[in-house]
Request: fold
Amino acid sequence: MKARQSQAAAGRAHRPARRPTIARIGSRRTAGARIGGALALALLAGCATRGEIDRFSAVRDVSPREAFVMPGAGGPSILGVLERRYNNGVEQEIVLSGGGFVSSSNMMRVQFIGPVDESTSGRTALSERSLARTEIGRELRQEFPGVAMVRSPLYVQNRYGPFGYATGRSGATACLYAWQRMSGTDDATLILRPRGIINLRLRLCEAGASEAQLLSVMYGLGINAFLNHFSWVPYGAPPGPDAALGETGAPIYPVAPAGPPIGYTPPAPPEPAPAPPPPRRARPAAPRVERVAAPPPQVVQPLPAPVGPLVPPPPAASAFPPSAGLPAAAPASPGIPAVTAVGAPTAPTAGTLPATTRPPVAPPAVCADGRLMSTSGC
Reply:
């Protein structure tokens, strides 16, 4: 028995191994085909997908409509917006119109700090601590080189809270630099503390503008964006209603406020230089009228005195009787001595002129044009 058992064990030990069946070989081939197909599909998918373009610079130019802060109505217009992303927020530099004669342009720098999307955020972080006085002085020297900026000691606030500002002047150009920080709370001991922070800087220069005109831009600003996260609360808790509402002994009248809030009033443009006066046209010379002097009136010269011996008038009585047919002698004129028949003059009567007096002369005849009438007439 023992010999037979030993022979059987030896036979089993030298028995050849069982060959694999056709079913097993087919299953192994199917598994290898599946693995090869999966690898081929993975390679084809990797070749078919396109690589997404990324930029080394984190600064991007966005549309002015996507600006975080908008100026008030009538304020300076937005020329462009540069956006930079950080691992704890987003910063925008909003370029505004104007600038006066200062080298740098007008702009607003806005920082939204809070929980942002890690897939689109940058590698560096924005500072979350409050602004110090030394940093304000450094920013003023950096933003306005060569311009003496003076910080205002007055307390001012707009619709989002208090802010500070400094003013300066370079020739006829007035400059304003304002800064504001909005944060719900700065308590770092809370685990779920609000992380919303907004930092704002405004740099504005205008030629011929006043301090009130530049400061009015801060009162007209409006925030146009937010971070969609429950912990982003930069404005704090909303203020409650006025304690006088609904209380007795506190009447409220429908009276308009004392005056409208300060609005942006753009500076008046410089007056243009007066235009040179038009050349004066020479007036045509008036026709020269020659005045002809009227001929002087002709003065009638008196007749020259008679020359020669005095001729006595005819005698008063003729020596011949009237019956002889001769004319009777004319009566003697006054002052003329009578002549006798022989022709000798008689002695003058009382009231008559002496014999040497000249006889009267008849006035000359004068024509209508003032000339003397000649013997042939006028």
